[in-house]
Amino acid sequence: MTRVLDVKGLEGGYGSVQILYGIDMHVNEGEFVTIIGPNGCGKSTFIKTIFGIASYYTGDVEYRGQDISGWRTDQLVNHGIAYVPQVDNVFPSLSVKENLQMGGNTLSNSVLNERIERSIDMFTDLRSREYDLAASLSGGERQMLAISRALISDPKFLLLDEPTAALSPLYQQQIIERIDSLREGGITILIVEQNARLSLARSDRGYIMANGKIVHSGDAQNILTDPEIGEYFLGSTGH
Ligand SMILES: Nc1ncnc2c1ncn2[C@@H]1O[C@H](COP(=O)(O)OP(=O)(O)O)[C@@H](O)[C@H]1O
Ligand SMILES: [Mg+2]
């Protein structure tokens, strides 16, 4: 089985502020993987380090067998990786369509327009709102727009930072279902989440992060149903 992402001993942070202390994890082709962990444990930093936004110090980071450690974001995008940030992931003063155009500023106009059309249909209910400002969208609609923008580069591997945070239960469900349908369409998925029940329920495998390290890994269903993990990492037992 192809390892889309293979991380061993990753250390990183922000300049000289170390946050990640040796992350070991992998994502197989076609998988949906969720990393959970408490606020401040380093989930966002991990995803940012992979995507070339936080500082990489040391460790192995391979994408489909190729060493990508320390690569720039634009190189990663060209190799099929896309990232949806946790916050500030749309430009409120731009229209829906302009936001999508920002996702593909190196593409030719014809390819860009084709991708925008496809991305709107694949992921949003925003067809009738193309010319509305992103500021006018609800939280759930903004998240759909942010994910659609990431799809413009035609990624094969999508990194999502808390895609359901601060959304209504209905939108949380919709977003996770749509992310799962992207996986069915052939995109490998890695999500980091604090409120992770919904995401784990769709996942193949899960990891638990604490204090900048992976402290547990396993089958997503086992993580969901483990009473101790539920108590410490998922807020409640869910029953
Ligand atoms: N730009 C930054 N510079 C320095 N420290 C940061 C920065 N961003 C986040 N941190 C710190 O890194 C730690 C991990 O944060 P983060 O990765 O955002 O955690 P999580 O996503 O798990 O909530 C926190 O202690 C946070 O304060
Ligand atoms: Mg975070």
Number of domain modules: 1
Give the DSSP E fraction (strand runs of 2 or more residues): 25-35%
Query: Mind telling me the CATH class?
Result: Alpha Beta
The 3D shape can be described as: globular
Helix content: 25-40%
CATH superfamily: P-loop containing nucleotide triphosphate hydrolases
Q: What is the architecture at the second tier of CATH? A: 3-Layer(aba) Sandwich
- Global mean pLDDT: 93
Q: Cofactors and ligands present?
A: adenosine-5'-diphosphate, magnesium ion
Ends apart, CA distance between termini: 35 Å
Order of SSEs, N→C? Answer: EEEHEEHEHHHEHEHEEHH
Query: Mind summarizing the main beta sheet?
Result: 6 strands, mixed
Strand order of the largest sheet: 6-7-8-3-9-10
Would you count the extended β strands for me? 10
Radius of gyration: 17 Å
Which structural class do you get from the secondary structure elements? alpha/beta
Supply the number of helical segments. Answer: 9
Give the low-pLDDT segments.
none
CATH topology call:
Rossmann fold
